[in-house]
Design goal:
The complex is a heterodimer. Chain A is an alpha/beta fold. Chain A is built from twelve helices and nine strands. In chain A, helix 10 links the parallel strand 8 and strand 9. In chain A, helix 2 packs parallel to helix 12. Chain A is globular, with a radius of gyration of 16 Å. In chain A, 60% of the residues are buried. A six-stranded mixed beta sheet of chain B has the order 3-4-14-9-10-13, with helices on both faces. In chain B, strands 1-2-12-11 form a four-stranded antiparallel beta sheet. In chain B, strands 7-6-5-8 form a four-stranded parallel beta sheet, sandwiched between helices. In chain B, strand 11 and strand 12 form a beta hairpin. The longest helix of chain B has 15 residues. Chain B is globular, with a radius of gyration of 20 Å. Classes of the chains: A alpha/beta, B alpha/beta. At the A-B interface, helix 3, helix 5 and strand 6 of A face strand 2, helix 1, helix 8, strand 11 and strand 12 of B.
Chain lengths: 259, 404
């Protein structure tokens, strides 16, 4: 497995940026994120039924599919990204059905060939790991799991077992982009999780501003920002890269200041 | 060739799988809830008081047992096998949906949940859910695709009369699958007080098993009624399939009766050769949606495609995972009938038996119409009349070119 994810977190709190593939000029948007200081890229695979996502990312999925984005396109964006940015970790994030459609081995093989470091599948919990996890691990791709406020102490070991890359702590029980959790609750939960694992813990859901990002960076290994960036893509379309750069630079400064 | 299992009635396994189908494909936030639901359901199953309350409500509130009815003029018209109906359209609220809603709301209250949510397509499950919420005084939010809200305005008004809040869903294609997405989004954001009453035998484990068990009252009654009336079991069971809860309710108690054949009838819409149908089993392929692995209408990239049927209740791009398994195991046969054939079945039952069926069982009737003439006169077909047609008269009038 590549060490890109581990290296990114080794420098101190990392900024993890999410955008949806095929929503606007994906290559230019990704480059803007990297140039402005994103440490890890999450590239969303569009799906017709994104049931864990709020309105911002739902709309991005529809815009992307409406523009005709296919799985082959997503893999092409990844391949080209890897060629341009050999050291920046790239994670695909999405839902099970597009990932398993041609079989988990096919997907793992294609993602590995595209230079993908990790995969976050929202609707494959540890109980259904067989559906994708073994195929990813066989190709050296990290299956990145989610933990939530509802993941209690009894369940946490099961979530952590087989998790690789980093753990994505979803700070609120809800959908993406809506509420934000109290920092005290985030701090307590991250501390609880870190007692049981050595992999980095990144916190996301509802993180919109540099102020919030800075607060979280003081208590976690990484900060995930998604909906706020996706909204920029939706609002500015072809002009999004410049605006993404401004927002990402402010977020990166906030996160990296905690180093 | 698969080996024949000892029983077709002992699935799902402890992980909620029916062979390769079923399971619990949900976001981590929901996983602890789904596990808790399963634990509480197992306790309720083992509690005679729970079963007694369920039975009591089915008898005195829903009006069970529903009649088993021999249809003499339809039988004569078709000229072959005897046609019998299980009359679940006579239930309170006019369809089989209420059986499941009674069971789930009793479980919700047992678990201390104080708020109910549900999705609905045609509105039958929404009405049934709103009904039980009114009966037990719980607040109720029904998610319904904005397109369906327009198409099914009488049911929207019924739900509102019953005190439910109806939320039109505008995301995606604004139909049933989008309403289900929105239901899951609500649940994930309100995990502490909310119970999601899923309307069909689909979704994450334990829903497919639980809904099937609550609906199995249909088949248990029918089996006993048929034995007592004719001294024998039927030769063929027929039921329409959208998500598949009425069919499983009828079929499941008969699955280990080897002489009883079964036929599930999907909606072929404008025909299986195009993409304007809702036949997930006959025109779809296995995939993962809404918490379970099952047959789906999807493209080569796994994007879900919109189903079409004249019946809004069959217009769903997936199907309960147990049907996917029953198809692969060969125990149940599946067929599909078009909108046109369903309309003919609808009119035939009106004219021969004085029963206006819903468009969902009209699909089952269309299949019966084809098969009964090919069977001997001493053969028995038992079809499930899972809903009455009051809700559909506007759709039918439009299709027949009649101005109301």
């Amino acid at each position: 497995m590549s060490n890109r994810i581990a290296n990114a977190f080794a420098k101190g709190p990392a900024l993890v940026c999410f955008i949806t593939a095929g929503d606007g000029d994906t290559a230019a948007n990704l480059d803007a994120l990297v140039e402005a200081g994103a440490d890890v890229i999450e590239l969303g695979m569009p799906f017709t039924d994104p049931m864990a996502d709020g309105p911002a990312i739902q709309s991005a999925n529809l815009r992307s599919l409406g523009a005709g984005t296919t799985t082959a396109d997503v893999l092409r964006y990844a391949t080209e990204f890897r060629a341009r940015h050999p050291n920046v970790p790239l994670v695909l994030m999405g839902y099970a059905n597009p990932m398993v459609r041609r079989g988990p081995e096919w997907f793992a093989e294609a993602a590995a060939a595209a230079g993908v470091d990790g995969v976050i599948c929202v609707d494959i919990p540890p109980e259904e790991d067989d559906a994708l996890g073994p195929a990813l691990r066989a190709k050296g791709i990290a299956p990145i799991r989610l933990a939530t406020p509802t993941t209690d102490a009894a369940r946490l070991p099961q979530v952590l077992s087989g998790s690789e890359g980093f753990l994505y702590y979803v700070s609120v029980a809800g959908i993406t982009g809506k509420q934000q959790a109290q920092i005290a609750s985030i701090e307590a939960n991250v501390a609880r999780i870190k007692q049981s694992t050595d992999i980095p813990v990144a916190v996301g859901f509802g993180v919109r501003t540099p102020e919030q990002a800075a607060e979280i960076a003081r208590v976690a290994d990484g900060v995930v920002v998604g909906s706020a960036l996706v909204e920029v893509c939706g609002e500015y379309g072809a002009d999004a890269p410049a605006h993404l750069k401004t927002l990402t630079a402010a977020l990166a400064l906030a996160v990296h200041s905690a180093r | 060739m698969n080996t024949v299992p000892n029983s077709f009635r002992n699935l799902p396994d402890e992980r909620g799988h029916f062979g390769q189908f079923g399971g619990r494909y949900v976001a981590e936030t929901l996983m602890p809830l789904v596990l808790d639901l399963e634990r509480e359901y197992r306790k309720a199953q083992a509690d005679p008081a729970f079963q007694a309350e369920f039975d009591d409500l089915l008898e005195h509130y829903v009006g069970r047992p529903s009649p088993l009815y021999f249809a003499p003029r339809l039988t004569e018209e078709l000229g072959g096998a005897q046609v019998w109906f299980k009359r679940d359209e006579l239930n309170h609220t006019g369809a089989h949906k209420i059986n499941n809603c009674i069971g789930q709301i009793l479980l919700a209250m047992r678990m201390g949940k104080t708020r109910i949510i549900a999705e609905t397509g045609a509105g039958q499950h929404g009405v049934a859910t709103a009904t039980v919420c009114a009966r037990f005084g719980l607040p109720c939010v029904i998610y319904m695709g904005a397109e369906d809200v327009k198409r099914q305005s009488p049911n929207v008004f019924r739900m509102k009369l019953l005190g439910a809040e109806v939320v039109p869903v505008t995301s995606g294609g604004a139909t049933l699958k989008d309403a289900m997405n929105e239901g899951l989004r609500d649940w994930v954001a309100n995990v502490h007080d909310t119970f999601y009453i899923i309307g069909t035998a689909a979704g994450p484990h334990p829903y497919p098993e639980m809904v099937r068990n609550f609906q199995s009252v249909i088949g248990k009654e029918a089996r006993a009624q048929m034995l007592s009336r004719t001294g024998r079991l039927p030769d063929l069971l027929v039921a329409a399939i959208g998500g598949g809860s009425n069919a499983l309710g009828l079929f499941h108690p008969f699955l280990d009766d080897p002489t009883v054949k079964m036929l599930g009838v999907e909606a072929a819409g404008h025909g299986l050769d195009g993409d304007q149908h809702a036949a997930s089993l006959l025109g779809g392929s296995p995939g993962v949606l809404h918490g379970n692995r099952t047959y789906l209408l999807q493209d080569e990239d796994g994007q879900i495609t919109e189903g079409h049927s004249i019946s809004a209740g069959l217009d769903y791009p997936g199907i309960g995972p147990e049907h996917a398994w029953l198809k692969e195991s060969g125990r149940v046969d599946y067929t599909a009938v078009t909108d046109e054939e369903a309309l003919e079945g609808f009119q035939l039952l009106c004219a021969t038996e004085g029963i206006i069926p819903a468009l969902e069982p009209a699909h089952a009737l269309a299949a019966v119409k084809k098969i009964a003439p090919t069977m001997p006169k001493d053969a028995i077909i038992l079809a499930n009349l899972c809903g009455r047609g009051d809700k559909d008269i506007f759709t039918v009038a439009e299709r027949l070119g009649v101005e109301l």
